[in-house]
């Protein structure tokens, strides 16, 4: 029922951990299941140079976080904001329908971490 890519990213998740002094950090929860994901981004000149995550959640949440953090690295924040949970699921060769909601966690966590970064930039500029 899971693709080989999902199993690979679940067994060997990329980018697990924390970034010290991250430029953007966010934690989101999935209201459907109570699972939690925290994302850390390092951003330089508008480009995401590093991304790490911690997930307290199911295998599909771990696999989508792993893939999503891989996908945003090297992208501009504008490009990263375009990445949908569907794109992440497709990059994993699909998820079972009842596990699609798990991929929303990764998309939301990345968007929220970018927003955290942008709001910090704003407050820097107004000081
Ligand atoms: Fe059981 Fe996410 S609700 S693993
Ligand atoms: Fe909760 Fe997958 S079951 S994120």
Automatic annotation (TrEMBL):
Domain of life: Bacteria
GO biological process terms held by the UniProt record: iron-sulfur cluster assembly
Single GO MF annotation: iron-sulfur cluster binding
Residue stretches making up the NIF system FeS cluster assembly NifU N-terminal domain: 1-122
Cross-referenced InterPro entries: NIF_FeS_clus_asmbl_NifU-like, NIF_FeS_clus_asmbl_NifU_N
Name of this protein: FeS cluster assembly scaffold protein NifU
């Amino acid at each position: 029922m899971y693709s080989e890519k999902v199993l690979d990213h679940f067994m060997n998740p990329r980018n697990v951990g924390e970034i010290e002094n991250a430029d953007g950090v966010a934690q989101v929860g999935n209201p459907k299941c109570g699972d939690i994901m925290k994302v850390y981004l390092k951003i330089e000149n508008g480009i995401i140079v590093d991304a790490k995550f911690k997930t307290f959640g199911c295998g599909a949440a771990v696999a989508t976080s792993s893939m999503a953090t891989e996908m945003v690295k090297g992208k501009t924040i504008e490009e990263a904001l375009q990445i949908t949970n569907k794109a992440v699921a497709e990059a994993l060769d699909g998820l079972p329908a009842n596990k699609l909601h798990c991929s929303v966690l990764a998309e939301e966590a990345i968007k929220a971490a970018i927003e955290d970064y942008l709001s910090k930039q704003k407050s820097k500029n107004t000081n």
